[in-house]
Amino acid sequence: MAKTDSNLSFILNKPHDVTFEERPKPKIESPHDVLIAINYTGICGSDVHYWEAGRIGSFILKDPMVLGHESAGTIVEVGSAVKSVKVGDRIALEPGTPCRRCTPCLAGHYNLCPDMRFAASPPIDGTLAGYYTSAEDFCYKLPDHVSLQEGALIEPLAVAVHITKQAEIKPGQGVVVMGAGPVGLLCCAVAKAFGATTVVSVDIQPSRLEFAASYAATHTFTPERVPAEENAARLLKEVGLEGGADAVIDASGAEPSIQTSIYVVRRGGVYVQGGMGKPDITFPIMELCMKEVTAKGSFRYGSGDYKLAVELVAAGKVDVKKLISETVRFEEAEQAFKDVKAGKGIKMLIAGPNEK
Amino acid sequence: MVSVEKNPSLFLSGPGNAWVGESPYPSITEEHDVIIRIAYVGVCGSDISFWTKGGISAKVDASRPLIMGHEASGTIHEIGSAVSSLNVGDKVAIEPGVPCRRCLPCKAGQYNLCPKMVFAASPPFSHGTLAKYFKIAEDFCYKLPSFVSLEEGVLVEPLAVAMHVCRLADIRLGQDVIIFGSGTIGLLCAAVSKALGAQQIISVDVNASRLEFARKFAATGTFQPDNDSSETIAGKIKEAHNLDGGADAVLEATGVEVCISTGIHVLKKGGTFIQAGLGNPGIQFPITTLSEKEITMKGCFRYSAGDYELALHLLESKRVSVKELISSFVDFEHTTDAWERTRKGDGIKNLIRGPQN
């Protein structure tokens, strides 16, 4: 019989060394905070990367850390100043709390806060546990008709919302998205919701492209092992975007995709780097210059992104259910990580330790 | 540790009813807060509304006397345990409104629009800076450049207002700008426009001596209107200053109906109008002109992210000088004299010294 008040936690000690530990239940420390019972958590490429390599860039695992950051849960306790949620509310959790005082925070770019405390980015513990505390304003109430499992997809959807907003997509535009993993697929869906009429999904895996075509892409494209310029020319011809795409989003991080993107985007168009791969690559800078391309980085999500993500799901404009390949029990978390690493399915969810 | 420091403060309990009283020393309760020994407080048009009418929208109540003042400078007296950017003794300009930091407008970078903004001298409970000591969060306190005096530090607040106006207007190199009103805000809008590279900066006012000051301070030209219709005045401004198509931007710092109308008529097609001045809540407005000329009109309220920093940058780089606007000083006990002076239109910026003992 499953425990109902467990704070069993999935902990990364060092690469490939994970343990399950019953940790003390977290306590609310601020009147603006809430305590959440975690229902479902999705696995992201970044989680797998920490599990494999113990670091991403300058974030290095030094001490054991709870993994996971894409979660939905239920409010079980509220601080004395909490007004927007109550006990029993089902919420999608925005897992990063900024300092609220620095220049980027005050200017509305809290995703760029240098003191951001982000779940499962060392040294901050993640959400693969029974309970988690958060500030009230980083919890977004799910409408009754949106399930908690869909709630766990709000995080990657908010990433896609942020990327797509950076791409400045307007109705009637043509958009190309490199990479048909969860973020790429969701970017296609958000671009469509923003009014793009041509949405091209690009990937090297035929099964992913097949899914993209059934999901939100109007066209798909499989690049070959030829120079980026050639792939770009063929793509534009095949999908009927002769002048170039208004916006190109890279959700792969792969060098050939990034290079192809700059040849695919039209003069004066926008290119957004969402995917993370090699830190340094060969980049077609002359092409960017001569076509006056605007290239923007995109990092996590900021003001209004989570809210819009919930609204898109609530209104039926983006279907996140379709991306859920499997939900496994908490005890099977390690196997789930191995499966994601092996490329199994699109999005795997891990049920919280108290889920029946 | 309970401080036995006295904190003389200037209270208002209704129109015409102000006195020096005592308030508790504002002990630090939050680790990011600082306590400032107030050096100078400036008088603003809004203070006059409080002095004569008890307030603008929300009014002070005799049951809850309110400490007045919001344009202030001082020296850091005490710092909270998490304060890292300021030290005791630092000379600072104060941004007198702290937002909640948690709501949507706050997290989107428009904290001036926070519904829970705690702004100095706002009824019913938010006390102002006319006291010996004032407490505020560290990040709303700005260290003054070494050569900027505490007196000049008071002008950082209206300079930040002017910066906010000009940023909303997106004033750029080469643009022609018309500014209605040559009080403190109008004058500082002219100075900021100049620093941003505006070509023609025309100050409009009914008062000839104010216009003369504007011309010496930052305006490239001036205009003193007669009792004409707004279309006629607009036509005369354009003719006098060779503005055939009209101005790129109008910064409205009076709130007066005829100025607002004139501003719409003097703008070029596609121009930008910024409403900074506060006057009558409802006015006659040439709406079809706005439509046909595709004018962008924006409300403007106080200051937000980056305005204080940019204002200080202008002072530090000496591209704007504010000393010239300081007209008089009174001691703390004579605060109402300063208010009367301003009410009568004497001087540009009248200052009140903080309590000396």
What does this structure look like?
- The complex is a heterodimer of chains A (356) and B (357).
- Chain A has 356 residues and is an alpha/beta fold.
- Chain A has helices at 45-53, 103-106, 148-151, 154-166, 182-193, 206-215, 228-239, 255-264, 285-290, 305-314, 333-341; strands at 8-14, 17-22, 33-42, 55-56, 59-60, 65-66, 70-78, 90-93, 96-97, 117-118, 131-135, 139-141, 174-178, 198-202, 219-221, 245-250, 265-273, 294-297, 324-328, 347-351.
- In chain A, the strands form five sheets. In chain A, strands 3, 7, 8, 11, 12, 19 and 20 form a seven-stranded mixed β-sheet that branches. In chain A, strands 15-14-13-16-17-18 form a six-stranded parallel β-sheet, with helices on both faces. In chain A, strands 2-1-6 form a three-stranded antiparallel β-sheet, covered by helices on one side.
- The longest helix of chain A is centred in the middle third of the chain and has 13 residues, at 154-166.
- Chain A starts with 7 loop residues before the first strand and ends in a 5-residue tail after the last strand.
- The mean pLDDT of chain A is 96.
- Chain B is an alpha/beta fold.
- Chain B has two domains: 8-155 and 322-353, Quinone Oxidoreductase, Chain A, domain 1 (Alpha-Beta Complex); 162-299, NAD(P)-binding Rossmann-like Domain (Rossmann fold).
- Chain B is 28% helix and 26% strand.
- In chain B, strands 3, 5, 6, 9, 10, 17 and 18 form a seven-stranded mixed β-sheet that branches. In chain B, strands 13-12-11-14-15-16 form a six-stranded parallel β-sheet, sandwiched between helices. Chain B has a three-stranded antiparallel β-sheet with strand order 2-1-4, covered by helices on one side.
- In chain B, helix 1 (45-53) crosses helix 11 and helix 4 packs across helix 5.
- The mean pLDDT of chain B is 96.
- The chains are: A alpha/beta (356), B alpha/beta (357).
- Chains A and B meet through helix 2 of A and helix 2 of B.
